[in-house]
Amino acid sequence: DPLDWSMSDVQTWLIWVTLELSLQSFDLTKVSYTGRQLIERGRSSFLKLLPESISDVVWEHFQILVK
Q1: The PNT domain covers which part of the protein (predicted)?
Q2: Number of domains in the chain
Q3: What residue numbers bound the domain in which 19 lies?
């Protein structure tokens, strides 16, 4: 459950989703949030954390996990 994810869990998921979906890699240090914090930030703030070319795909995957 992403609500329970630590910062480390979020970074592990981001690495996994990037590799699994063959997405552009990016600087993970920009995403220093827990799962709960990412949920609370909302879509527009979340999208600003990632490169534009992958942000929508990663957001959609995150939303699937949240539900």
Answers
A1: 1-67
A2: 1
A3: 2-66
Q: Under 8 Å CB-to-CB from 58, ≥6 apart: which residues?
A: 14, 17, 18, 23, 50
Residues 19-43: tens digit of each pLDDT: 999 999 899 888 999 999 999 999 9
Q: What is the pTM (predicted TM-score) of this model?
A: 0.90
* Residues whose CB is less than 8 angstroms from the CB of residue 50 and which lie 6 or more positions away in sequence, other chains included: 26, 30, 31, 58
d(CA 24, CA 15): 11
Percent of the chain surpassing pLDDT 70? 100
User: In sequence order, which ranges of the chain are alpha helices (DSSP H)?
Assistant: 7-20, 35-49, 52-66
Spatial distance between the Cα atoms of 67 and 65, rounded to a whole number of angstroms: 6
CATH number at residue 58: 1.10.150.50
